[in-house]
Please model this.
Amino acid sequence: MSYELYRSDWRIVGHEWAVRHVTHALNAGRLRHAYLLSGIARIGKTTFARAFAQAVNCLSEVARPCGVCRACKLTAQGNYADFTLIESQGNALKIEQIREMTRTLALRPVEGRYRVLVLRRFHEASLQAMDALLKTLEEPPPHVLLLLTADTTETLLPTIKSRCQMLNLRPLPVPTIREALITQYRVEPERAALIAQLSGGRMGWAIEVSRDDTLLKQRAEWLDWLEQTLGESRALRFERARQLSEDRANLPTLLALWQSYWRDALLLAHHTAVATITNRDRRHTLEQIARSARTDDIYQALLAVRRTLRYLQANVNTRLALDALMLELPRLHISVS
Ligand SMILES: [Zn+2]
Model:
């Protein structure tokens, strides 16, 4: 076996198959000029792009990316002359940004082997911007590496997709995120387990939430409301529906959370292991519900939340939809501790 200069240890969490794919291409001298990194928001696409840029410009003669040479360090800090992150301005990547980028592409790299350009949030690019990029994709200068990131590829022109090597990054397994939070970000184990479970496999989201409690506090408040509602009279429930209807912008997130809560209750009612539930910090109240409510009532509550979510998307009167939901949640006395 020949010696391999490029290694698959990129010091990023997950996405191993994509790292191996790129490493293999680098070692075989078959690097493409444009890659499209797709995957849901906060999954680690830009982190991947940065490590990719380190690999192609690393100065090590032994193992690339080394993480410690000038090119690796400056790229990590965002200060490397041949590494440029282009963000969409406002909500869309503008044609002027692509034109300006195209002009710099013709220039030789300042010190690296490649001039690496990362175009972030390319799913928001305007049609004209995509059109302008196509010309570059047709005849890319040999020293250029273009990395496009997109939350979805549905909005992209087929001609863009066909000229890029597509790498679709998938959500990471929950244990991978949990371990990374504990070992690399020093998050306390029980908290790391909860954040990992709630992350939907998005490492970027998990890191952000581990540093800023706001999202977790909001979630706790919304679950408290649901648990309190179960013990309340009709009159109090209608009052709650009125309060909820005033915060319409947050309702889809709140209802999605309540949906996951009832799904957990249903899992426990069917004697599924606690480890499989999403809202593991609520296992005590969820277990009480699973024991004291009829399975059919739990199922009906889950359906009612789902139906309310659909109604909101269809612009049904918010207050009416919430009133109806309140009547369909079972009446239960659970002790919240
Ligand atoms: Zn290096």
Remarks:
- Residues 172-212 form one domain.
- The chain has a mean pLDDT of 92.
